[in-house]
Design brief:
By secondary structure, the protein is an alpha/beta fold. 22% of the residues lie in helices and 29% in strands. Helix 1 runs parallel beside helix 6 and helix 4 runs parallel beside helix 5. The mean pLDDT is 93.
């Protein structure tokens, strides 16, 4: 018979890592299931500036996540790399079935986070990895001395656009409104960067190319004017990065736990509507999705899982 853990944590982003740390420190048998790398979305973030206690200089999402993982493992939390295909969350013992095995636990913490929202233009899927990307730190260096376009106007979009200027000869932010939504301090950095340009009131309707992205059709949402943007003939391609928000990674369990627009509904103690099932981090309905709130969620969820087990 498979081992029955005290707690299984689904996801190894900041919320999952913090939950693993607190659960392990409470001497609960703990398993963290993650199909990818430690850190979740922050692993693709080039620079972190607002996490208390971080390295003041040169703190990346991956470096912060790596230290979190080491600290978690110090307290005995196990980690398995697997893709979970099915979950059974009701009853005293929860069951998670993956491509590599089946995992049992008395409690489960859902920390699956969210994934990038598609740009929404025609032919987009054809060029993901062939010019279109959602990760500046992963793919920015591939566009050394090329032109790059960034879709979005929030904090992430502008921060990543600034980061991309380290590689691209020019970066243009495409935003459907006539002003950015990013924090004022971030906007000031952007407007003072000589390699950044802006295309206001604009959306992308369609992208084209043979093997690589070569041109795109953009439309002014106010005037309806349509323009074709083409790669420089000497370059042959350009980069297009999407940063227009995230979608909750909740399809596995949204028919079981209560959700709102795909995000899991919890109380202040991270409890879902199912006894013994908790949620933490970006997967939750919450007003602020940041690393600092994710780790707080994880700590609360693990603490409440312990109380559930002892109560």
């Amino acid at each position: 018979m498979s081992k029955i853990y005290d707690v299984i944590i689904l996801g190894a982003g900041p919320a999952g890592l913090a939950a693993g740390l607190y659960a392990g420190r409470a001497r609960l048998s703990t398993l963290v299931l993650e199909k990818g790398q430690y850190g979740g979305q922050i692993a693709t973030t080039s620079e972190i500036e607002n996490y208390p206690g971080q390295q003041v200089e040169s703190e990346s999402g991956s470096s912060l996540a790596a230290r979190m993982a080491v600290q978690m493992q110090r307290f005995g939390a196990e980690r398995v790399s697997d893709t979970i295909r099915c979950v059974e969350l009701t009853g005293n013992v929860k069951k998670l079935t993956g491509t590599r095995g089946t995992y049992l636990a008395k409690t489960v913490i859902l920390a699956t986070g969210a994934f990038p929202r598609p740009i929404g233009c025609k032919n987009e899927s054809r060029f993901v990895g062939r010019g279109i990307s959602f990760c500046a730190t992963c793919d920015g260096s591939l566009f050394e001395d090329l032109e790059v376009y960034v879709v979005g106007g929030g904090d992430s979009a502008v921060e990543e656009a600034i980061y991309l200027t380290k590689f691209a000869r020019k970066v243009t932010i495409i935003h459907r409104r006539n002003e950015l939504r990013a924090a004022r301090s971030i906007q000031e950095k952007a407007f003072s960067n000589p390699k950044l340009a802006f295309l206001w009131d604009t959306v992308i309707d369609e992208v084209f190319g043979d093997e690589l992205l070569e041109r795109m059709v953009v439309r002014n949402v106010k005037t309806g004017e349509v323009t074709t943007v083409e790669a420089d003939p000497e370059d042959g391609t350009f980069g297009l990065f999407g940063f227009i928000g995230f979608q909750p990674n909740s399809k596995l369990f949204e028919s079981v736990v209560n959700t709102e627009n795909g995000y899991v509904v919890t109380d202040a103690y991270m409890r879902t509507n199912i006894p013994g099932v908790f949620a933490a981090g970006d997967i939750r309905v919450k007003p602020l999705r940041q690393v600092v709130t994710a780790v707080s969620d994880g700590a609360v969820a693990a603490t409440q899982a312990e109380k559930y087990l002892t109560g």
